[in-house]
Amino acid sequence: MADTDDTFDGVDCLPISLIQPRYRVVLAGKCFFHIEETSTGRVRGFRTDHNEACYLARRLERSA
User: Fold this and answer.
1) pLDDT at position 16 over 60
2) Cys-Cys with 52: which of 2, 20, 30, 47 at CB 3.0–4.6 Å?
3) In what order do the strands lie in the sheet with 23-29?
4) What does pLDDT average to over the chain?
5) DSSP string across 4-64
6) Average pLDDT of 26-38?
7) End-to-end Cα distance, the chain
């Protein structure tokens, strides 16, 4: 029997397309990445390595 309810353990679930990240990694130059806050466009950090920039964005997301 399939469960047609849109909740998971009592938590409302949104489609993935409606969930917006608070931070995004943006290429700002040759091998230079900004971590921007999506709501304000302000730069919250920068890194020269893309993987490190993504890690910082995820860390900021968790601490927000």
Assistant:
1) yes
2) 47
3) 23-29, 32-37, 43-47
4) 85
5) --SEETTEE---GGG---SEEEEEEETTEEEEEETTT--EEEEESSHHHHHHHHHHHHHH-
6) 96
7) 39
Nearest to 53 by CA among 30, 27, 29: 27
Global pTM?
0.69
Angle at 20 between CA 38 and CA 3, to 5 degrees: 170
Judged by DSSP in three states, 1 sits in coil
For the chain, domain boundaries: 22-63
Cβ–Cβ < 8 Å for 39, 32: no
